[in-house]
Amino acid sequence: MSAKGNPYDNAVVESFFKTLKQEEVYLWEYESISDVINRIPYFIEDVYNKKRLHSSLGYRLPGEYERLMAENDSQECIMAKTISV
């Protein structure tokens, strides 16, 4: 375990929270906790996971990246079968 406050401990989580704050929290003026409860899940599920380009995925949408990976895997399976025959 590293020292308290080490920014490299949870880099992925800290990056996500930075994005959440910049792209959702700071842009909306929440009037009640129910606004927060409604908006945050919407941002995570619909914006972050489906519409937002991710630099770690080559600036692709997560769904597009998954589709490309599935196509790549199926092509590799086809190639492996033709080579082994």
Main attributes of the structure:
about 80 residues, mainly alpha, 3 helices, flat
The backbone outline, from C-alpha atoms, is flat
- Oligomeric form of this entry? single chain
Number of domains: 1
What's the tally of helices? 3
Radius of gyration from CA coordinates: 19 Å
Low-confidence stretches: none
Described by strand count, sense and barrel closure, the largest sheet is: none
Q: How many β-strand stretches? A: 0
Strand percent estimate = under 5%
The span between the termini is 50 Å
Q: Work out the helicity level.
A: 55-70%
Instruction: Find the structural class using helix and strand composition.
Output: mainly alpha
pLDDT averaged over residues: 82
Instruction: Please trace the helix and strand order, writing H or E for each element.
Output: HHH
Task: Report what the structure shows.
This protein has 85 residues and is mainly α. The chain has one domain. It has three helices and no strands. It is flat.
